[in-house]
Hints:
By secondary structure, this protein is α/β, with parallel strands linked by helices. It has helices at about 5-15, 70-80, 95-100, 115-120, 125-145, 145-155, 165-170, 180, 185-205, 225-230, 240-260, 275-280, 330-345, and strands spanning about 25-30, 100-105, 155-160, 210-215, 265-270. Strands 2-1-3-4-5 form a 5-stranded parallel sheet, with helices on both faces.
Amino acid sequence: MAPSHISFLLLVLLLANKVVAKVPAVIVFGDSSVDAGNNNQIPTIARSNFQPYGRDFTGGKPTGRFSNGRIPTDFISKAFGLKPTIPAYLDPSYKISDFATGVTFASAGTGYDTATSDVLSVIPLWKQLDYYKDYQSKLRAYQGGNEANETIKEALHMMSLGTNDFLENYYSTFPPSGRSSQYTTSQYENFLIGIAGKFVKELYQLGARKISIGGLPPMGCLPLERTSNIMAGSGCISSYNDVALEFNNKLNNLTVSLNKELPGSRVVFSNPYFIFLHMIRKPSSYGFEVTSTACCATGMFEMGYACNRNNMFTCSDANKYIFWDSFHPTEKANQIVSDHLLKNVLAQFL
C-alpha cells in the first residue's frame, strides 16, 4: 500500500466505525520543520520565501516553508479533517477566523535553548508561548469564552524542535558554542529536557490537554552533516545519531512522567527517527533514489538563500529525493513521516 494513502484510509475506517474526530484545531510550536512563514516577518536570514522553495506547493508559491511543498503539520491537519495547510501566526494575510482551526508559531532556526534562537536572531520558544497567549485572547473574543476554552482543551498541540540545539548550537564551530564548554552532551540533553517539561506544563496551565512532543530525526544523516564527514566517505555521523537516540529516549520518558503529573493530560511522543532512517537505508521501498544529497543546488550544503532558483544543479523531480535542501525533507518525505506518526501515535486523538 502506498504510504500516501494511509492517513486517508485510517480516516475512512474510523468513520465507518462511527468514531467522531475530536480535534478542532492543530496548534504548533517549533523550528523550521513546522514553520509556515513566521520568519518572513522578522529580521533574520533564516528564510525560505523565495523560489525554488514552494515550487510544488499550491500555485508554486514560496510561503516560507522549508521544503518544495507541504510540511508535516499540513498533512496532519488534513488527516484530522481540518484545513490542508496550517498558516503562520505572523502572516498578515490571515486572521483569527483562519487560525481558529490551526496555527503555527514555529520559527526556523529556533530550539528549546534560547541561546539557539540567538544564533540566527529568530523567535525563541518563550516568545512563541507569548504569541500563543495572545492567540488565546483573540480566540476568546472570536468564539466566546466557553467555546474557545473547549477548542483549546480539545486541540492537538504539537512541538517539533531540538535539532538546532545540537547542530546549530552545541556542536557549532563557527562560532564555537559556549554550551559545549558548559555541559557534557548528556548534561545538555538534560538541560533541554528540563525546558521541554517546563514548556508542556505551561501549555497545560493555559488549558492544553492533548500534546505531542516531537523527537529528533537521525540528524547525523542530514546531507549537511554527511558533506562534512569526509573521513568516513560522507556517511552518516554515527555519534550525532546516537545523541538523537539518547535524547529521544529522554523525551519519551518525559512524556511518561508528565502524564502522571498532569491530571487529564494526554502527552505523547512522536518519534520520526526510525521511519527516517528506514527511508535512508531502504529508499527504493518508498520510491526514492537519492539519500545522501538534496535536491536543491548541489545538494551538499545549500539551504536558505544558498538555494536560489537559478542554480543549474537543482533537481527536476524532488520526489526522487528524501531531502529538499541540506537540512530539510522533501514534501514526499514529509508526507511519509506524517502518515507514520498518524498511524502509530496520533490516531488515538481521532
